[in-house]
Design goal:
Blueprint: E1 7-9, E2 15-16, H1 18-26, H2 34-43, E3 45-47, E4 50-51, E5 55-59, H3 66-81, E6 84-89, H4 92-106, H5 118-121, E7 124-128, E8 134-138, E9 143-148, E10 161-164, H6 172-178, E11 191-196, H7 206-216, E12 223-227, H8 239-245, H9 256-265, H10 268-274, H11 290-295, E13 305-313, E14 319-327, E15 333-342, H12 347-357, E16 360-366, H13 375-380, E17 386-388, H14 390-405, E18 409-411, H15 415-422, E19 424-429, E20 432-437, H16 445-458
Parallel strand pairs: 5-11, 5-12, 6-9, 6-10, 10-11, 13-16, 15-18, 16-17
Antiparallel strand pairs: 1-12, 2-3, 3-4, 7-8, 8-9, 13-14, 14-15, 19-20
Helix pairs in contact: 1-2, 1-3, 2-3, 14-16, 15-16
């Protein structure tokens, strides 16, 4: 049975405290498995007086001993180095379990007569056992505070090591609240640890996926990544594959008959993700992965012909976007966000002005969207609108996706479009799909607008706006 990760990225270094941490933990009945030792060696590798890996990522199937590995890191860091930890988890119950496991080593309070390890209990100054505020503080300054993640839960903490367990479920708000806790690391040597399993189809997995993509890019600096996973085309019933990606089978923590039961009960995607650690069936729940989108970014991109505009409005009508699509000189398609503002009163004058100044071949609006209320108003202003059906929307979304994945499209790397892509999901339209929002707070108007603008630039049946340009001498869009 293999103990080595299939995917293994780490900085080059010659010094590690991994063996020291393992020996220390073993003296308290927490001896690492061989696979855990591999991870420890990289997490605790040092270069020029700092951790070689500022960012550490671990993806391993469930029940293989991930939590025990985190305990070794925290136990060694608190006692041996006086580090301050903030341990976070997606759910309160998971955070609570992590606290109980650490409390096992230190006792329930200072001078606890029932402490299993009196020498560790002698280091304790306080054990905080209030639900949601669990913490252990030591005399040497080391500590661990444990919280369930939210956009406000990490406010006010200052720590050396940030542990983000269940990283497959972590929002951008969570991350933005957590990361500053290490900005003034007391040891001036922070570390961020992301651990979890591949994100499921409904998980908030963009952040964990982003860490993985950075590790696999070959351009990562001070980052380690350990992944026990099957190849994307692996046979889900191959027992040898089960052994390769579940290192805990070697010591009996996992049992073959249990995995056989999981195979019988789980869907193929679920088994591949949860038991075989396969990112091919999980990955991010984003429709277009961040790397593919970044690959077609071109800040200098400019369309010169077949220019089309499209308008989209949020369901609550508080935000609106106008997208632009067109053809570049090199034959690739171009999309960009022409404008985004709050409210709707600005849209008609904006579109009219664009049609007057540029050779716009189409103005597109989804006939079933909140923007449909603008169709008559634009007509009164002299602009004919091409209205799309559900079938047109499905075609537009599929065309947009294919153009990105085949690198036949360029975008100008605008943060509004990238952000809307990250929170966009699929909704079924017959046998095809259209864009949908991840949640009620997600704004995907920039993405919908550029998707429809691309469709308008390519489609031969669009209505030509009746307004003429003020100047006929320029074909590229005027910004």
């Amino acid at each position: 049975m293999s103990q080595a990760p299939r995917v293994h990225e780490r900085p080059r270094t010659s010094k590690t405290f991994g063996d020291l941490a393992a020996d220390f933990a073993a003296s308290y009945e927490l001896a690492p498995d061989p696979w855990q030792q591999i991870v420890l060696d990289d997490w605790l590798a040092e270069k020029a007086g700092r951790w070689a890996s500022l960012t550490c990522g671990l993806s391993v199937p469930r029940q293989n001993g991930k939590n025990a590995l985190i305990e070794v890191r925290e136990l060694f860091g608190m006692v041996g180095r006086g580090e301050k930890f903030l341990h976070t988890a997606h759910e309160v119950k998971t955070a609570r379990k992590a606290f109980k496991r650490l409390q096992h080593f230190f006792g329930t309070k200072p001078d606890d007569p029932g402490a299993k390890f009196p020498e560790l209990n002698a280091l304790v100054t306080e054990v905080r056992n209030v639900n949601g505020q669990e913490a252990i503080f030591l005399k040497n300054g080391g500590s661990v505070e444990i919280v369930a993640r939210s956009k406000n839960s990490a406010r006010g903490f200052t720590v050396d090591v940030l542990v983000m367990d269940e990283a497959q479920e972590m929002s951008e708000d969570d991350l933005e609240a957590l990361m500053p806790t290490t900005s003034s690391s007391p040891k001036r040597n922070p570390q961020w640890i992301f651990t979890g399993t591949p994100p499921g189809p409904n998980a908030n997995g963009e952040i964990f996926t982003r860490v993985r993509n950075e590790a696999l890019s070959g351009k990562a600096v001070r980052l380690s990544w350990h992944e026990w996973s099957a190849e994307p085309d692996s046979d889900l019933d191959d027992r040898d594959e089960w052994r390769k990606v579940n290192p805990a089978l070697i010591n009996g923590r996992l049992q073959f008959e249990v995995i056989e039961g999981e195979r019988a009960r789980f869907s193929d995607d679920g088994f591949g993700r949860e038991r075989l650690g396969m990112w091919a069936v999980a990955g991010s729940s984003s429709v277009i992965d961040p790397q593919s989108w970044a690959d077609v970014a071109d800040a200098a991109s400019m369309p010169i012909e077949s220019l089309a505009l499209a308008v989209d409005v949020s369901p609550d009508r508080t935000m609106a976007s106008v997208g632009l699509g067109g053809l570049r000189p090199d034959g690739r398609w171009h999309v960009e966000l022409d404008e985004q503002r709050r409210g709707m009163g600005w849209i008609v004058p904006w579109v009219v002005k664009r049609c007057e100044r540029n050779a716009i071949r189409a103005v597109v609006i989804d006939g079933m969207s909140p923007a449909a209320s603008l169709i008559d108003e634009l007509a009164r202003a002299g602009v004919k609108v091409t209205t799309t059906s559900a079938r047109d929307m499905a075609t537009a979304c599929g065309t947009f996706y294919d153009a990105v994945m085949d690198a036949r499209l360029a975008h100008t790397d605008q943060p509004q479009v990238t952000s809307s892509l990250s929170v966009a999901r699929k909704r079924p339209i017959g046998d095809a799909w259209g864009w949908n929002r991840k949640n009620a707070d997600s704004d995907i108007t920039p993405l919908v607008a550029v998707t429809l603008a691309l469709w308008g630039a390519q489609n031969s049946t669009v209505k030509r706006p009746t307004r003429k340009r003020a100047s006929q001498g320029r074909r590229a869009v005027v910004m």
